[in-house]
Design goal:
Elements lengths: L2 E3 L41 H8 L9 E7 L15 H9 L7 H11 L4 E4 L6 H17 L8 E5 L3 H14 L9 E3 L6 H10 L2 E4 L1 H8 L7 H5 L1 E6 L7 H20 L5 E6 L5 H9 L4 E3 L9 E6 L3 E5 L5 E3 L2 H14 L4 E5 L2 H18 L7 E4 L5 H13 L4 E4 L14 E5 L5 H8 L9 E6 L4 H8 L2 H4 L13 H14 L7 H4 L3 H10 L3 E4 L2 E4 L19 E5 L5 E5 L1 H7 L5 E4 L2 E9 L4 E6 L4 E22 L2 E21 L5 E6 L5 E11 L2 H6 L4 H18 L11 E6 L9 E6 L7 H7 L1 H14 L24 H13 L14
Parallel strand pairs: 3-8, 3-9, 4-6, 4-7, 5-6, 7-8, 10-17, 13-15, 13-16, 14-15, 16-17, 20-24
Antiparallel strand pairs: 1-29, 2-10, 11-12, 18-19, 20-21, 22-23, 23-24, 25-26, 26-27, 26-28, 28-30, 29-30
Helix pairs in contact: 2-4, 3-4, 9-17, 11-12, 17-19, 22-24, 22-25, 24-25
GO molecular function: helicase activity
Protein name: DEAD/DEAH box helicase
Keywords: ATP-binding, Helicase, Hydrolase, Nucleotide-binding
Length: 826
């Protein structure tokens, strides 16, 4: 029997192919003119005062496990390089900035020298200005050219909202330059009648990797004048391009560079990143170019008070009688309500769309009990909304009409929301980089700010709120991506061949895996080799082969059954778990029940309802070893890394009470299985090791299962993933290894680099896993240590003490982490 833990991003395979402040990762303030206040505080309370009020309720103070005070810091000014046009400097000064910070001037100097550069500094440290100064200067130079279009620049953002926000900022900054700078957004929301104007006349085009991949590159002849004059490519929030998504974007950028060369251009890449480890290495893997790093943050910062908050235990009991904590969702809704009542402008960041909607609903209900005018001051913001809904919410947040917002990471990425006083983070967001990015949304005008991390009832969050050094003393993670993943590279080779026939000269650009893939693509009759190179042979669009967000198929449309109104979409990969028949779906605070999921037509029909529960899908998983790439002895056991095939099937769903999470019942489902070929790390133990750990056959399955759950929960501390990117399987006797085995695998076709990182940090990773289980105060296991809310086997069996003994014995003979000697590039 296999015990499994499956990622949400399960895809069909394409076939067998008080500590010292961390000064480099805290929120930063903008460089306002000396002597001018950043923003009038009026009667705005201090961050410490806001926290004191939150903690004043009954039992509230005990929920704060740690408070970190990061003091304010002064900045270091410099002067702009002399090649920045005086008109641009004047425009910057009109915006209230007399002098750049030292890192802004250094980045601008590299850009004007023709060096690709990554600016990896803290939130609100002025990264936008660092790349805009050289870009605007170059566009201004180009506008004075006697012939031709002049210079152009391309801006890439991971979200539409960020691109729209940046257009507003650029337009305001460049207003004194007249018609020399013509910014325009070109994405899926751009009206058809405006697109031709953008192609012909805009010289600063703001878009996203999706539109570049599907719209601009396949239509490059229509963009020829723009590409011919392309001088700069700005890649904002580049730390978000990780895993499979980052690998896809890396290949899109190589296609862009290839077409630019075809038109005689060689643009400089300017990347902006939150603080990360080895940003130049990651930026080089993303672009395929050597990149200079600017990471010494010279900007000042306001005071930040950062609280770690653990919800209390309730009187309820969950599966197997385990104690249950109050949900992070309910706790966050309470905090957002209290902050709104205080008049404190706040954003609550939530990991899921459903969570954002639920927090908004709860907060509105509680505010209505106080004052019926208050619920309209709170809203939800998430992906999947229609464009007009997103824009209206962004305007309301900018204007201050909204006091509280429950948002997914769609709002995390750089939208400049000045004047926020606090941020509540509902559950650890998966990486330290994202944590600081979200915390940095408050205090962006230089004032002090409060950040609160509310722990979910799972191993990682529990570990972090009781080990603050893991957040405040550790550097942020490296960005993991693998452009050579064949499941990523193959469709982009087809797309590139459709744009221009591939030649031998292109092989070096796309990477060392190309020679092995081209014959396979020929055999599949996707490419045909002729004298001039490899050509795309099909009538359909080659770009449609690559789903760069890793959705694994076209999105499922969510349609209101009675009216036919389109409510939104959900990724195909998540459809089986999110919009199965009987699932509860939230949209703009309204609850719907899914009446039918039509997988063939990619439509989920819903009707409005008010069930007193939420739903959670359950599944089963089996795993087969295809190839072992690397293995090392761990005493008598072994640690391995290689290729596997995972078969998963969603078989039922649970109904859970709102707020408490109490299980009300389980309903069977009949959905087809899905297969995935990916990469995994796994470890085995022998009979002698089991004897030494006092693990008998009766508890072996539970000990392995518990260790698997906890190790998945802790892996995000060691790789830039979150637990939804990875899955796991534990088997008392696996047919391929013939030993008790625990697998942890990437939830994406071909792998995403996370399992490889786990292999290279296995000793540290599994040591932290053992400590997290052993230090939990529960008796037999709970969601804070070994239970998982999405376990396909209903958290049965689990054996907490057996897992501790098993990991202790495994780690007894573990060698040092392999990457201490041979760290892989990432």
């Amino acid at each position: 029997m296999a015990f499994n833990h499956l990622p949400a991003a399960m895809h069909d395979a394409l076939g067998p192919l008080s500590v010292t402040p961390v000064t480099h990762s805290v929120p930063m303030a903008k460089n306002h003119r000396p002597g001018r206040p950043a923003e009038s505080r009026g009667s705005r309370p201090s961050p410490a005062m806001i926290l004191d009020r939150l903690a004043a309720g009954a039992g509230r103070a005990a929920r704060i496990t740690h408070t970190e005070h990061l003091p304010p810091r002064s900045g270091t000014h410099a002067i702009w390089p002399d090649r920045v046009r005086p008109e641009v400097i004047s425009a910057i000064e009109e915006a209230g900035i007399d002098h750049p910070w030292a890192h802004q001037a250094a980045a601008a100097e590299h850009a004007l020298d023709g060096d690709s550069v990554v600016i990896a500094t803290g939130t609100a440290s002025g990264k936008s200005l660092a790349y805009l100064a050289p870009v605007l200067s170059t566009l201004l130079d180009g506008s004075e050219a006697p012939n031709g279009r002049g210079a152009t620049a391309l801006y890439l953002a991971p979200t539409k909202a960020l691109a729209a926000d940046q257009r507003r900022s650029v337009k305001a900054l460049a207003a004194p330059l007249g018609n020399a700078v013509r910014p325009a957004v070109y994405d899926g929301d751009t009206p058809v009648e405006e697109r031709e104007w953008v192609r012909q006349y805009a010289n600063y085009v703001l878009t996203n990797p999706d539109m570049l991949h599907r719209g601009i590159l396949p239509s490059h002849p229509r963009w020829s004048s723009f590409l011919r004059a392309l001088r700069f490519v700005v890649i904002d929030e580049c730390h978000t391009y990780r895993g499979v998504f980052g690998s896809h974007v890396a290949q899109v950028l190589r296609r862009l560079r290839r077409l630019c060369a075809r038109y005689g251009a060689d643009p400089v890449f300017l990347l902006a990143s939150a603080t990360s480890a080895d940003p130049a290495v990651a930026a080089g893997r993303l672009t395929g170019l050597p990149v200079v790093e600017v990471s010494d943050d010279a900007s000042p910062r306001g005071e930040l008070v950062f609280a770690l908050w653990e919800p209390p235990l309730t009187d309820l009991h969950g599966e197997k009688g385990a104690p249950v904590r109050r949900t992070a969702t309910a706790e966050t809704a309470d905090l957002l309500t209290d902050l709104t009542l205080q008049g404190v402008r706040s954003v609550a960041f939530v990991r899921s769309r459903r969570g954002a909607e639920l927090i908004s609903v709860i907060a509105k209900e509680r505010l209505a009990e106080v004052d019926r005018s208050l619920p309209k001051r709170v809203a939800a913001y998430r992906g999947g909304y229609l464009p007009e809904e997103r824009r209206a919410l962004e305007r309301a947040l900018h204007s201050g009409e909204l006091l509280g917002l429950a948002a997914t990471t769609a709002l995390e990425l750089g939208i400049d929301v000045s004047g926020l006083d606090s941020v509540v983070i509902c559950g650890y967001p998966g990486t330290r980089a994202s944590l600081w990015q979200q915390a940095g949304r408050a205090g962006r005008s230089g004032q002090g700010a409060l950040a609160v991390l509310v722990a979910r009832d799972d191993p990682l969050d529990t570990y972090l709120v009781h080990h603050p050094e893991a957040l405040f003393r550790q550097p942020v993670e490296s960005t993991v991506l693998d452009p050579d993943n064949p499941y990523v590279l193959a469709p982009h080779l087809c797309a590139a061949a459709a744009e221009l026939p591939l030649t031998e000269a292109d092989i070096a650009l796309f990477g060392p895996a190309v020679p092995g893939l081209l014959p396979q693509l020929e055999a599949a009759k996707l490419l045909r080799r002729r004298a001039s190179g490899w050509h795309w042979t099909r009538r359909e669009r080659a770009a449609d082969l690559a789903d760069i967000r890793g959705g694994g198929g076209r999105p499922v449309q969510i349609v209101e059954e009675g009216t036919g109104r389109l409510l939104g979409t959900v990724d195909a990969a998540a459809a089986h778990t999110a919009v199965h028949e009987g699932a509860v779906h939230l949209h703009q605070g309204r609850t719907h029940l899914v009446r039918k999921l039509d997988l063939e037509d990619s439509v989920a029909l819903v009707e409005q309802a008010e069930p007193p529960y939420s739903t959670v899908a359950r599944d089963t998983t089996a795993i087969t070893v295809l190839e072992t790439d690397t293995e090392i002895p761990w005493g008598q056991g072994r640690l391995c890394y290689g290729s596997v095939e995972v078969t998963n099937q969603v078989v039922s769903f649970l109904r859970r009470k709102l707020i408490t999470g109490e299980v009300l019942g389980e309903t069977k489902l009949d959905l087809p299985p899905r297969t995935l070929r990916t990469r995994a790390v796994w470890w085995t133990v022998t009979e002698d090791q089991l004897d030494a750990a006092r693990i008998n056959p009766e508890i072996l399955g539970g000990a392995l299962h518990a260790a698997e759950h906890a190790s998945i929960g802790l892996l995000p501390l060691f790789a830039t993933c979150d637990r939804w990117d990875i899955g796991g399987v534990s088997v008392p006797l696996h047919p391929d290894t013939l030993l008790p085995t625990v697998f942890v695998y990437d939830g994406h076709p071909g792998g995403a680099g996370f399992a490889e990182r786990a292999f290279h940090t296995a000793r540290s990773w599994l040591t932290a896993t053992r400590e997290a289980i052993a230090s939990c105060e529960c008796e037999a296991g709970c969601p804070s240590c070994i239970q998982s809310p999405k376990c396909g086997n209903g958290n049965d069996p689990l054996h907490k003490r057996g897992a501790v003994r098993l990991l202790t014995e495994l780690l007894r003979a573990a060698p040092a982490d392999p990457d201490e000697a041979t760290a892989p590039e990432d």
